[in-house]
Amino acid sequence: MRIAVIASSRFPVAEPFAGGLEAWTHMLVTELHARGHELTLFAAPGSDPDLPVRTLDVPAWEPSEVALADVNSPSRTWMHEHHAYLSLMLELSQRSDIDVVHNSSLHHLPVAMAHLLDAPMVTTLHTPPLPWLESALALRRDAGVFVAVSRRTAEEWQHVVPARYVHNGVDVRRFTPGFGGGPAVWTGRLTAEKAPHEAIRAARLAGVELVLAGPVADEAYVEREVRPLLGPDVRYAGHLRRAELVSLLGSASVAVTTPAWEEPYGLVAAEAMACGTPVAAYARGALPELVPPTAGRLAAPGDVEGLAAAIVEARGCDRRAVREHALQHCSLSRMVDEYEALYTSLTDRRVA
Fold it and tell me: In whole angstroms, what separates CA 201 from the centre of its chain?
C-alpha cells in the first residue's frame, strides 16, 4: 500500500527519542516499510535520515510583527505548528496517489480536515482527550477511523468518538533479554507527570539501587524534586540511545514506573519486559492491562510504600516468563499486523 504517516511536529523522529510517541512512530514506519509498503513520513526537521522513507519538512513561516502585536495572538511556536499542519493537509487534499493516511500527530487540523482527503484516515489516539481534538470532532464526526493505544484510553475517548484499541508494541528483535541482577531502573521523560522522584523514594524504602534514564523534559521540576535526591544509591544516566537503553534494561533487576497521570499505554514497561525485566508500577492508566502477575507487581497510584513492596516482589519474577509475556502481547509485529488489517479493510471498503 501507499501510506502517508503524519507524525508530531514538536520533536524529530530520531534517536535519542524525545518520548514514546517518537519511538513508536519510528518503529511503525520502519516495520511497514520492511513489509513492502511505500511510505511518506511527514515529520519534524531533524528526523532520522536513515529512515526508509521520504521526510518532508513544511517551509518555515513567520507571522508578521503586526499580527503578533494582537493581544490575542498565539505564540510563535503555536503558529508554526498550525502553519505546518495546515500546509500539509492542503497538500494531501490535492493528492490521489495515497491509499491510507495514518495520523499519529496530536494536532487538531489533520482530524478537522480529514474529509478533504481522497484517502481514508486512521488516527491513533496516544493521549487522553485534548480540548482542540474534542472541538474538531464535535464538528467532523466523519474524520475517519480512530484507534486508541489501550482499552483504558479508548474508554476515556468514548464521550467524544468511538475508538477501537490496538495495544502498542516494541521491537522484540532489538529489545532483547539480559541477565538482570543489577539495580532497579526508571526510564522515561523526567517530568512531574512521570514522577521519578517517587521512584527514588520507593527504591530507597526497598533498599535497592536505582538508575534513572531519559530526557529532562521539565528542568525546573528536575532541579526541585529529582537532583536533590541523587546520591551513591541513585544516579542519572542521561538521555540514552536505544542500544544503551537495551543494555541498561537488560542488566536491571526490576523496572519502576510511576505515572502521576492516566498513562495511555506505558511503552517503557513494554520495553523492560521485552528485555526480560519485571516491572513494578502504579496501577494507573493502561498499566494494569500490560503487566500481569507473571511479569511484575502493581501498587495503588501514589502509594510509595506499596510501590517499594512491589519492587521487592517483582524482582522475584521469572525473567523467561516476563520475556515470553512480551513476545506474546507487546511485540511490534503483533501491533503492525493489526494496523495492516485495518488498512486493508479501509481500502477494500473504498474499492467496493
Answer: 26
Write down the domain spans for the chain.
2-169+331-351, 184-329
Identity of the amino acid at 178: G
Same fold, 2-169+331-351 and 184-329: yes
Looking at CATH, the fold of the domain delimited by 2-169+331-351 is given as: Rossmann fold (3.40.50)
Which of 337-340's residues contact partners 24+ apart within 8 Å by CB, and which partners?
Answer: 338/166, 339/28, 339/32, 339/102, 339/122, 339/147, 339/166, 340/32, 340/35
pLDDT tens, position by position, for the chain (352 residues)? 999 999 988 889 999 999 999 999 999 999 999 999 999 999 988 899 888 776 656 556 777 888 778 887 788 788 888 888 999 999 999 999 999 999 999 999 999 999 999 999 999 999 999 999 999 998 887 899 999 999 999 999 999 999 999 999 999 999 999 999 999 999 999 999 999 999 999 999 999 999 999 999 999 999 999 999 999 999 999 999 999 999 999 999 999 999 999 999 999 999 999 999 999 999 999 999 999 999 999 999 999 999 999 999 999 999 999 999 999 999 999 999 999 999 999 987 765 5
CATH class of the domain whose range is 184-329: alpha beta
Which residues, 6+ apart, have CB-to-CB distance to 59 below 8 Å? 87
Is pTM beyond 0.85? Reply is yes
